Amino acid sequence: MITGKRIYIMNVVSFQPATADKPITGQPIAGTLSILLIITLIGCGNDVTGPDDDDCPPDAVCVGMTSNSFVPANIEVEVGTTVLWINNSSEAHTVTSGSNGNQDGRFNSGNISPDGEYSYEFTEAGTYHYYCIPHVQIGMTGTVTVVNGNSN
Ligand SMILES: [Cu+2]
Description:
Blueprint: H1 2-20, H2 22-45, E1 61-65, E2 70-71, E3 74-78, E4 81-87, E5 96-99, E6 102-108, E7 117-122, E8 126-131, E9 141-147
The structure holds copper (II) ion.
């Protein structure tokens, strides 16, 4: 019993230098937090999807949605192309045709939840402006320019 107590005390005493070392052991933790922060920032970067994104099917042209923008905002596609909007952000968005917050009635996705998608096939040449209803006032707008394909 007495030996056990002594061991206990020894442990407490030997624990003391470990506590003094805390700033040193704290550095790797801070480093880990920095790495996590960097990963988080890179993760935000991954929200930016586009035509080359892995989530984009080979037969579609894709536009990503960040928290406040379409990426890329302006695209040009050939007639008959299906454009797929992918919401990789943490906010709900809409893909609504029209400009300056005025719908033209051509298409409207309704709310697209995070991880949600919306697609629309453009069957006629022209310039199609669209916007996100919740975020149009902070400039979340885009344009799809549809051109006649080259007959090879
Ligand atoms: Cu939005």
